[in-house]
Amino acid sequence: MRTATIERNTSETQINLTLNLDGTGKCDLKNPIGFFDHMLKSFCKHGLFDLSGEIKGDLEVDQHHLIEDTGIALGMAFNKALGDCAGIYRAGCFNYPMDESLLQASVDFGGRAFLVCDAKLTGAPLVSLGQDGKQSSFQTDCFEDFWQGFVSGAKCNLYLNTVCGRSDHHKMEGLFKAAARSIRQAVEVDPRRNGEVPSTKGYIC
To answer: Of 67, 111, 126, 135, which is most buried, counting CB atoms within 10 Å of its CB?
Structure first.
């Protein structure tokens, strides 16, 4: 099984993640940010990745540190679980329609980190009620921070694009699902590759 466990502890965040690339879509992660938890559950469900652990951080400051560092740690988990990338498809892409929105994601696990994100978000926070009945929100500007952290940890190229859409909720959720499906394509084992590294260089670094 292609699995990895990553611990990332700083003065700002404490993150422990265990990832299984060949899972069933189960997300059992203790996550204090409601909308972010919804996004990661959607990511796992549509990518068929299993993710467990706990994330904690200095939410009294804001959500940026925890969301970005979780992206870094998750990317590192993908990088570790993939090893030398032998036998995988390496690249994937997916268009995800979600109500009034159409979202695109393309990824290449080629050993280089680069993000292009054109999510077309309004920047307004999403406001909700927590389980304790108190008002909470999600900082939508942290969406791109998460994926920037992910590509730096995973050493992949990732392109995220909102083709059209009105709802920030739908744009972000659709992009998480599109990313999950494209990443799922990329990391799956190609039966025709016979275990070779998918690069003319002979290795991916």
So the answer is: 67
Would you list the DSSP string of 41-77?
HHHHHHHT-EEEEEEEE-TTT-SHHHHHHHHHHHHHH
How many residues are listed for the chain in this entry? 205
CA distance 180 to 107: 10
**C-alpha–C-alpha distance, residues 181 and 175, integer Å:** 10
Amino acid at 119: A
The per-residue b/e assignment along 48-85, b for 16 or more CB within 10 angstroms, e otherwise, is bbbbbbebebeeeeebbbbbbbbbbbbbbbbbbbbeeb
**Nearest residue to 183 (alpha-carbon basis) of 157, 201, 161:** 157
The residue among 69, 65, 56, 37 whose CA lies nearest residue 152 is: 69
- Give the separation between CA 115 and CA 134, rounded to whole angstroms: 35
DSSP string, 118-167: E-----PPEEEE-TTS-EEEE-TTHHHHHHHHHHHHHT-EEEEEEEE-S-
Query: Could you give the CA distance from residue 12 to residue 4 in angstroms, rounded to a whole number?
Result: 23
Residue range 17-41, pLDDT digits in tens: 999 999 999 999 999 999 999 999 9
